[in-house]
Specification:
mainly beta; Pnp Oxidase, Chain A; 7-stranded antiparallel β-sheet; 4 helices; 14 strands; binds flavin mononucleotide
């Protein structure tokens, strides 16, 4: 099949876009509001977008607490969402008031970060400590403003659970990272393969 996405002519009952662009890594974003209340939420329109320096981006569909906090305080942490933490990750996506600390809601412990104020998630084996560099407000091909904004940050500190480090490499499959697809679907990485470049 083919359909014209501009005209929203997709004959399927549910828009398949998110099922087609996947698996998407999940940035499990912790931040603090100016009063120090912690916030935690998953974002799967998320990725690493450069490595020198390391930079990450996530897309916020409207003014959510994460983007508000990050713009006010300038800092956030991207925690790795794993198979073991999948239920807590899901709970942390609840649409609750900004005063609610989703660490507490999800029964998660906080661990102080090294270089930024927002804490990382205890039990998550990787945490990227970030400083906000830019927010890009998106528009469509007609120039019409969208509700989406890209939050870009530079990774200034990286926590890795020592158990993941094997022969100077990261054994990421042992962390069982989870990724997002469409609908309510996720995948879990348990196996890698290698391809040498030509
Ligand atoms: C796996 C997963 C991925 C999500 N990805 C996004 C996303 O990329 N962008 C977005 O705006 N919301 C996304 N959401 C929804 C937010 O997590 C949800 O709106 C949350 O309440 C936002 O929290 P905040 O207001 O504390 O930032 C996602 C939810 C889940 C469960």
């Amino acid at each position: 099949m083919f359909y014209n996405a501009l005209k929203r002519e997709c004959p399927l009952q549910i828009d398949p876009f998110k099922a087609l662009v996947g698996p998407r890594p999940i940035g499990w974003i912790s931040s603090l509001d100016p009063d120090g209340t912690a916030n935690l939420a998953p974002y799967s329109f998320f990725n690493g977008v450069s490595d020198n320096p390391p930079m990450v981006v996530f897309s916020s569909a409207g003014r959510k607490d994460s983007i508000t906090n990050i713009e006010q305080t300038g800092e956030f942490v991207c925690n790795l969402a794993t198979w073991d933490l999948r239920d807590a990750m899901n709970v942390s996506s609840s649409g609750v008031d900004s005063e609610v600390d989703e660490f507490e809601l999800a029964g998660l412990e906080k661990v102080p970060s090294e270089m930024v104020k927002p804490p990382r998630v205890a039990g998550s084996p990787v945490a990227l400590e970030c400083r906000h560099t830019q927010t890009v407000h998106m528009h469509d091909v007609n120039g019409d403003e969208l509700k989406y904004a890209l939050v870009i940050g530079q990774v200034v500190g990286i926590y890795i659970d020592d158990a993941l480090i094997v022969n100077d490499r990261i054994d990421i499959a042992s962390a069982k990272p989870i990724a997002r697809h469409g609908y309510m679907d996720y995948s879990v990485v348990t196996e890698l393969f290698r391809l040498e470049r030509p």
